[in-house]
Amino acid sequence: MSAINSILITRKPGSFEKLEQWCVSQHIRLNQVPFIKVEAVLNVAIPVSDWIFLSSPQGAQHYLKHYVIKAKNIAALGQGTAAVLKKTRLQVAFIGEPTDDPVIIGQKFNALINSNSTVFFPLGNRSKRSVIDQIHSDQVIEQITYKTSDQQQVLSEKFDTILFTSPSNFHSFIQSNVIDSNTCIIAMGKTTEKAIRDFDSTLDVSVLASPTESALIAFLEKLK
Q1: Is the dihedral of CA 208, 212, 107, 111 positive or negative?
Q2: Helix 167-176 vs helix 190-199: crossing angle, to nearest 10
Q3: What SS3 state is found at 217?
Q4: Which of 6, 62, 136, 177 is the most buried (most CB within 10 A)?
């Protein structure tokens, strides 16, 4: 029998279809509860640029739903964001390495592009600008294309394992809930890991470097 009986993921139901099927096969209770609300910002003037850099799966989803890409090349912060783009058959010319934090990814991207290339960054209102700060300001075009707000919920049940999908989801979660010391905490990406460790350095956090369903299922298999 699996050592994992219950999993909480801080994202809306239906976000992880393969994981849902895996949990059913393993007799594991899966709850998917978002602790943030993400809304698109409409009527933004999208510029023509040499590059567009998309920094999160949700940001990419909202962008593609409401806007067109006018850039010659596409860059993605990581595999999760790239997967969203590839689903629509878009070619991604740069994908950040899963082992690198956003600052390093920004530095590597900056080393790749020409010194006169323009880069468009569609951003959320809570962007930490880790990649942007690595690019010369004369090359950067930025616009807020989505907004994130807290959606606090008090959970009446405990979970063996919690996957925090973003720093915002984590911060919203802990405003109304307490993490049990025995809970297995998984952070999706290094930015989320840092947010958790900054809050409480004593928490035991595992990092899901590659934010894909296959990587998540493989990680959970090791916990069994």
Answers
A1: positive
A2: 30
A3: helix
A4: 62
Shared-domain flag, residues 76 and 160: no
In a domain, 219, yes or no: yes
- Split into its structural domains, the chain has a count of 2
| 44 lies in the same domain as 144 | yes
- How many CB atoms neighbour CB 29 within 10 A? 14
Under a CB-based contact definition with an 8 Å cutoff, are residues 73 and 172 in contact?
no
Residue among 163, 216, 166 nearest 191 (CA):
166
Give me the CATH number covering residue 131.
Answer: 3.40.50.10090
The answer to whether position 105 is within a domain reads yes
31 Cβ contact list (under 8 Å, min separation 6): 6, 7, 8, 9, 157, 159
pLDDT tens track of the chain, all 224 residues?
A: 357 999 999 998 988 899 999 999 999 999 999 999 999 999 999 999 999 999 988 899 999 999 999 999 999 999 889 989 999 999 999 999 988 889 999 999 999 999 999 999 999 999 989 999 999 999 999 999 999 999 989 999 999 999 999 999 999 999 999 998 889 999 988 889 989 999 999 988 999 877 778 889 998 998 87
Residue after which a domain boundary falls, among 130, 148, 166: 148
Helix (H, G, I), strand (E, B) or coil at 53: strand
Q: Which of 120, 148, 176 is the last residue of a domain?
A: 148
